[in-house]
Design brief:
This is CoA transferase. Keywords: Transferase. Helices cover 39% and strands 16% of the residues. The protein is α/β, with parallel strands linked by helices and 413 residues long. It folds into two domains: 274 residues, Rossmann fold (3-Layer(aba) Sandwich), CATH 3.40.50; 77 residues, formyl-coa transferase, domain 3, CATH 3.30.1540.10. Strands 5-2-1-6-7-8 form a six-stranded parallel sheet, with helices on both faces. Strands 9-10-11 form a three-stranded antiparallel sheet, with helices on one face. The chain has a two-stranded antiparallel ribbon with strand order 3-4. The relative contact order is 0.14.
Length: 413
């Protein structure tokens, strides 16, 4: 539908009306935008997406001064056009209705039932555009006893079991539940929503039929526990936290070196032997308490302190070099500055730069999707609030300047 993107992109023919904010919905929309779709991001006049104010840190301009663009917002909103509309007003609702009729997909993450009050729910918009794909993202879904609760990633990580599996063992110092360092329930919901939207598009292309997609953070959090779910469902034993260790393999964990930390993942007896040989203690492989993985698991509380003392004697770079040469799976625990200095990350082009109206340019993280025939495209930095309001309403709805001035005077846009 859109003519704004190159036809070499996979989704350059599509237009998405993005009524989402914060992370799960914007992450989905950004994925689709990177693949070429035109995304119109609808925001509240005056304040916009909540994450615009989730700072510091903020993007800095060429003189090193903070702009108004929060780093959190910049993470999930490139390749979009920002339009400000007061969706609570009848005039604003009509604008959304008209934009939806010009779009292929609507994404929204309002509370259950809120858009129905405005006649902007799927049932209402489907009457105007039967082939519309409409994706709702909420904390708990459209039905069930929690449907009307607000959904927050942190709470869902706890409710969905993730925090019962993450964190140090309860019997060790610092033991207890731990959330992830990023909003994984939001991010994974955005990824699942992307898959669901693309599936619905395939169905529409084959049948001409649109459909409704009901995505819930709690559903996603439960689903993504993968093998830990199955461990419980197979034997009804409740999994516990193991921190940076592994329940079934030793050594498969982090160790402190003389100047940092490394991960050692010795998945078999041969790799374990090479590990201790590299550390100058081959007797730890000959000891009958430690020479097989079942023995090491049984005697982990004796073995791990011995390995920890061994690892402390060398630096992180020394250990990485030794273990890579020996064929023992290992890796550093990098700080984020080290991540972007890593030659592999650099070779894969994971940092990009785009022009920005307030800072001349902005550094962003590249999409990990690498397609040979229809590569992702990086067209625009995350937009300023309302940057494209006049442009979009002119182009798509044929609003003239007088109409725009009237709407602006009423604070509808």
């Amino acid at each position: 539908m859109s003519t704004a993107t190159s036809q070499k992109t996979a989704l350059g023919h599509l237009r998405i009306l993005d009524l989402t904010r914060v992370l799960a919905g914007p992450w989905c929309a950004q994925n689709l935008a990177d693949l070429g779709a035109e995304v119109i991001k609808v925001e509240r006049p005056g304040c916009g997406d909540d994450t615009r104010s989730w700072g510091p840190p903020y993007l800095r301009d060429a003189d090193g001064n903070d702009t108004t663009e929060a780093a959190y917002y910049l993470a999930a909103n490139r390749n979009k056009r920002s339009v400000t509309v007061d969706i609570a007003s009848p005039e604003g609702q009509q604008i959304i209705r008209e934009l939806a009729m010009q779009s292929d997909i609507v994404l929204e993450n309002y509370k259950v039932g809120q858009l129905k009050k405005y006649e902007l729910d799927y049932a209402s918009l489907k009457q105007l555009k039967p082939d519309l794909i409409y994706c709702s993202i909420t904390g708990f879904g459209q039905d069930g006893p929690y449907a009307h609760r607000a959904g927050y990633d942190f709470i869902v990580q706890g409710m969905g079991g993730f925090m019962s599996l993450t964190g140090e063992r309860d019997d060790l110092p610092g033991g207890g539940p731990q959330k992830a360092g990023v909003a994984i329930a939001d991010l994974m919901t955005g990824m699942y929503a992307t898959i669901a939207v693309l599936t619905a598009l395939t169905h529409r292309d084959r049948t001409g039929e649109g459909q409704y997609i009901d995505m819930a953070l709690l559903d996603v959090q439960v689903a993504m526990l993968a093998n830990m779910n199955m461990n419980y469902l197979c034997n009804e034993k409740v999994p516990v936290r193991w921190g940076n260790a592994h329940a079934n393999i030793v050594p498969y964990q982090t160790f402190a070196t003389s100047d940092g930390h490394i991960i050692v993942a010795a998945g078999n007896d041969g790799q374990y032997r090479k590990f201790v040989q590299a550390g100058g203690q081959p007797e730890l492989a000959d000891d009958p308490r430690f020479n097989t993985n079942p023995q090491r698991v049984q005697n982990r509380d004796t073995l791990v302190p011995l390995l920890a003392e061994m690892v402390k004697k060398k630096s992180k770079p020394e250990w990485i070099a030794l273990l890579e040469a020996a064929g023992v799976p290992c890796g550093p625990i990098n700080r984020i500055n080290e991540v972007f200095e890593d030659p592999q990350v650099q070779a894969r082009g994971m940092k990009i730069k785009l022009p920005h109206p307030e800072a001349s340019s902005v550094n962003l993280v590249a999409s990990p999707m690498k397609l040979s025939a229809t590569p992702v495209s990086y067209r625009d930095a995350p937009p300023l609030l309302g940057q494209h309001t006049d442009e979009v309403l002119h182009q798509l709805l044929a609003y003239d300047d007088a109409k725009l001035d009237e709407l602006r005077s009423k604070k509808i846009i």
